[in-house]
Amino acid sequence: MKTLVIYDISDDDKRSDLRDHLRDYGLEHIQYSGFLGEVNPHDRFVLSKEVEKFLSCERDSIYIVPLCEKCVRLCHIISENKREMDKGEVDIVG
């Protein structure tokens, strides 16, 4: 299932380590603080436990959002950057 991970981490080192960790799960960096990719339910659960170590203060947050196929099809990206995500599964509007 597609999984969107977005985060707001104040500590630069922890933020960088989180990016590396998300890439290890095969997620693609789609925004400064956002990743997207295929993650099965078990791995998504494990990831949700692992990312807690990257939080350093009360203001920090990490959202892990599973997206069903219908949600992915309904997604629109409005951007000047015409880069496609997953070869046409998502509409790029710009």
Word description of this protein:
The protein has 94 residues and is an alpha+beta fold. The protein has one domain: Alpha-Beta Plaits. The chain contains 3 helices and 6 strands; from the N terminus they run βαββαβαββ. A 4-stranded antiparallel sheet has the order 2-3-1-4.
Quick overview:
By secondary structure, this protein is of the alpha+beta class. It has three helices and six strands; from the N terminus they run E-H-E-E-H-E-H-E-E. Residues 85-89 have low confidence and may be disordered.
List the helices and strands and how they pair.
Elements: E1 2-8, H1 12-24, E2 28-31, E3 34-38, H2 41-50, E4 61-67, H3 69-74, E5 76-78, E6 91-93
Parallel strand pairs: 5-6
Antiparallel strand pairs: 1-3, 1-4, 2-3
